[in-house]
Amino acid sequence: MKIQTPESNKPKKELPFVLAQLHALIQNDLELTNRIILEQLDAQVELIPTLGSHLINSGGKRLRPALTLLTARMFGYTGNQHALLAAVVEFIHTATLLHDDVVDGSVTRRGSETANSVWGSKAPVLVGDFLFSRSFQVLVSHGDLRILEIVADACAVISEGEVLQLVVTNDLSTSEERYMQVVSSKTATLFSSAMQLGAVLCNRPQAEVDRVARYGLLLGQAYQVVDDALDYSATQETLGKTIGDDFQEGKITLPVIHAYEAGTEEERVFWRLCLEDTNHPEGGLQRAIQLVKDRGSLDYAMKRARELVEEAKVELLDFPASPERDTMLKLADFAVDRSY
Predict the structure, then answer these.
(1) Which residues pair with 112 in a beta bridge?
(2) CA–CA separation, 102 vs 74, rounded Å?
(3) Sorting pLDDT into bands at 50, 70 and 90, what band is 60?
(4) End-to-end CA separation in angstroms for the chain
């Protein structure tokens, strides 16, 4: 079994310049991380490595593990343990995706069939559980309780975010503040924790750990806000998943919150019919896309994402300039400038 490098199975799509820079900067670290992933995916039950590699090989950007690698390198780390921690971050991310796709009933991710489309819903859930368990086995062998605490806390918060998203689904009374709580827990926490791992591995002062953690949290928030906007603005070929999934699943995202609050009563009736009553009229998705455009809701969401990444970049400015720090500053811009 071979673990591919990020985006290596998507030759048809040119890698954005900032990601190409990122991968060139930490190429050796990423290759080591991939080898560790391959080793740790090994199991007596053949379906586990088969299904796990299905998602890991499907062309993700590897942003979360890359943040661990970049942070460690920014602080001058010269060992190999950062790659072990990056592999753990990727395992946790993969496990959450496996569970998410089952809960959401998603059929495509990154342009490929989801694991639940291929193997049904039971196997992905169980393999996701295996990945969580294997992550903690690796961390126990690593032996640093501070590292173990960061990952354990992150897993708890992510799980809470998943449940909270389930609670607010189909609920148009959800406020922007509540939405951001979901985003912070479900998505941004792992960005933040990935960076904490790199800093703690280097025994940095708590103030510096807090700053990179804050950068990661804000970056993750912006990244998810943009993802939610793309669900109403991108093309399926570009995005790599079915457009309108959030709408079909009744997810209350920032573009919807803004469009609902800014809309006429007739428009609100439409949103309630589609998202709360889950009664989708013919052409409902097309109308929803038009409404979020007409009400300036996409612009609002992108403006909010831009504010978040500008806050994020401030957290890094006091660190000495380095290729790693400068790449992270560019990653913040990429988070809002991307089309997928």
Answers:
(1) 109
(2) 37
(3) low
(4) 28
Q: What angle do CA 143, 84, 328 make, to 5 degrees?
A: 120
pLDDT of residue 276: 94
Write the secondary structure of the chain as one string of H (helix), E (strand) and C (coil).
CCCCCCCCCCCCCCCCHHHHHHHHHCHHHHHHHHHHHHHHCCCCCCHHHHHHHHHHCCCCCCHHHHHHHHHHHHCCCCCCHHHHHHHHHHHHHHHHHHHHHHHHCCCEECCEECHHHHHCCHHHHHHHHHHHHHHHHHHHHHCCHHHHHHHHHHHHHHHHHHHHHHHHCCCCCCCHHHHHHHHHHHHHHHHHHHHHHHHHHCCCCHHHHHHHHHHHHHHHHHHHHHHHHHCCCCCHHHHCCCCCHHHHHCCCCHHHHHHHHHCCHHHHHHHHHHHHCCCCCCCHHHHHHHHHHHCCHHHHHHHHHHHHHHHHHHCCCCCCCCHHHHHHHHHHHHHHHCCC
Which residue matches tokens 């089309």? Answer: 339
Please give the average per-residue pLDDT across 192-212, as a whole number.
Answer: 97
**Residue range 203-229: average pLDDT?**
97
CB-CB contact of 62 with 41 (8 Å): no
For residue 264, the one-letter residue type is: T
Return the residue matching tokens 């990179």: 212
Higher-scoring residue by pLDDT: 242, 35 = 35
Cα distance between residue 218 and residue 222, in whole Å:
6
Query: Is residue 201 pLDDT above 90, yes or no?
Result: yes
Q: Please say whether the beta carbons of 340 and 230 come within 8 A.
A: yes
Share of the chain above pLDDT 90, in %: 65
Phi and psi at residue 263, in whole multiples of 5°?
A: -80, 170
Residue 42: which pLDDT band, with cuts at 50, 70 and 90?
Answer: confident
Per-residue model confidence (pLDDT) at position 12? 40
Task: Give the per-residue pLDDT at 11.
Answer: 39
pTM score of the predicted model? 0.90
Beta partners for 109? 112
Dist CA 315 CA 206 (whole Å): 14
Single out the residue of 54, 41, 169 nearest to residue 117, CA to CA.
54
